[in-house]
Design a protein that fits this description.
Strand content: 25-35%
Number of helices: 4
Structural class: alpha/beta
CATH topology: Glutaredoxin
Helix content: 25-40%
CATH architecture: 3-Layer(aba) Sandwich
CATH class: Alpha Beta
Order of helices and strands: EHEHEHEEH
Number of strands: 5
Shape: globular
Number of domains: 1
Strand order of the largest sheet: 1-3-2-4-5
Radius of gyration: 12 Å
Distance between the termini: 19 Å
């Protein structure tokens, strides 16, 4: 079972805010090249950190969520823990850089 899922406005609270453990939320869009670059990086992080959930939010379909979380550039990657944003990264980054940005938060 994969720990990567899609979220909508209707499922976001249950998938992210009420989740046990860390949740990486990837705010993305299908037309965004850097978003497509970072997607396999997040999939790999999820595969290597079974306690980390990765939730993808398509901002074209979920504009209200993008607005709620002040997403102005994509990809916008936010790490939530206990319902709160603990770290944020904007733009595509290599795996090592993302893991460093989220250091201590993926456990």
């Amino acid at each position: 079972m994969s720990n990567v899922t899609d979220a909508t406005t209707a499922t976001f609270d249950a998938e992210v805010l009420q989740a046990d453990g860390p949740v990486i939320v990837d705010f993305w869009a299908p037309w965004c090249g850097p978003c497509r670059q970072v997607s396999p990086v997040l999939d790999a992080i999820a595969a290597d950190h079974p306690n980390v959930k990765v939730v993808k939010v398509n901002i074209d379909d979920e504009f209200d969520l993008a607005t709620r979380y002040a997403v102005t550039s994509i990809p916008a990657i936010k790490l939530f823990r206990d319902g709160e944003i603990k770290a944020e990264v904007v733009g595509a980054r290599p795996r090592g850089a993302l893991e460093k940005d989220f250091e201590g938060l993926l456990d």
